[in-house]
Amino acid sequence: MNFWHRLKTELSLAVTMALVLQGCATWQTQEPDAIMAAGNCSSLFNEMDQIIQDYGVADAGTARIPGFPALRIDRFLAAFAHKNLTAEVYADWLERLRQLDMTARLIEWRNLPPAARMPLEPYLRPNLETTVNACGHILAEQALFYPRQRSRLLAAIEPPDAYSTWQRFFGLYFLTRWAIVDGVWSGQQEILDLFSKTDQGPGLADRLVRYAPPVQDALGVDQVATILAQSARNPLKIPQPSKDQLTRLFASLAPVWVVDTASDNDRIGTVSIGAEDKTYIHSQTPVVYTLTSHARYGDQTLLQLNYLIWFPARTPERWLDIYAGRFDGLIWRVTLGMDGKPLAYDSIHACGCYYQIFPGEGMQVVKPEDGSEPILSPKSIPALKPDERLTIRLTSGNHFIRSVTAERAVAGATAYNWLDYHALRSLPTPDNRRLSFFNKDGLVDGSERLERFLLWPMGVPNAGAMRQWGNHAIAFLGKRHFDDPHLIEKLMRPVW
Questions:
Q1: Which of 46, 80, 237, 328 gives the lowest tally of CB atoms within 10 Å of its CB?
Q2: Which has more confidence, 218 or 106?
């Protein structure tokens, strides 16, 4: 059901809800028409936002839009804001902004302490989801039907920025950046060297632990293309496979992880919250967290499959290792062309560090035209045979990728489980509360690194700390974001 039909069916519910809100002494209302419903809903959402802010449980995965409490934006949807959108496409885009807010708002509200929710619970009836959904539609209606509101909304859209302008200003970025150029080059060379090294050291083979996805028949390229084409039949032509289709897509393209396991810090685990709200990685249960995103390439929107693994820590390599600390994560991403073939693979650590890209068949990396940080691209990845799967080999300690190879199934691997990445935004606690793995700034508390003091002038807040999706700055020289929908388009071209 599209936005227009859903709005009609839920408008009456929202107006009825406005009558309930009349009981609040601070919200004076008159007759319950659409305008008064919008006023009540705006007051309710603003009051919710204030409580969420006061208790520090705001979700940083998407950005609020000033003056539009029922809408939020991410970097992908911001890319459509200033295009010449038809009425149907604009309505679809607006509904996606509303959905971003509803998802985040429900998460934030559930992460509040029970006592903090009590003042507004009488006005969130018949239940939280119904009220937030209905109010969201009422408020979005203002930007849908009134040209002045539409103009205000489009003028207010700004892509989120994971960089700090004031840090770069006071850190004299245009001078100090030259001091880290050699460090960037040497860091990239260190990773490149890993791809040319052969296995060495006594007992290394015994330390290699393999993690494989659950067994499931892989989809063929034609099947993938069919799913993408059918799921993109919406006004914005965004591929949105069903839940079952996504399960099969993720399983079909999931890598095998091979980790050099020198200590428990090298074991893939599950994020959990224990006593006294302490977050830790439960390494007895290996889990891969999955997340979809989208890229723009030419006039097409492409589906991206993200696979995230977590380790308890990055182990120090020396007495004073400024890059070591609690928690470490790695994201592997597959960008699918509409023909069902991988266009590119790329990866970062969960801090946004060590970005590297692996072109798919028929693609090549090009030098950035903006003079920003050079691109690390260790190799291209040819098309896989039907019985092959990518195997990603990681080093111990720092969990760098040291090889990416196509291999057939090998016995003896530990099967990992799947979890939705968004589960990290609201985890259960032992006393039946809920907390996010990320703080209000989109960072993982306790994952701070000493490198943040050295790299502060580069404008990356808390450089080295683990980050929430939507907050990954992936370059110190210039600006580059992992969730930039045009990132792949900027970095790659066809070989021919």
A1: 46
A2: 106
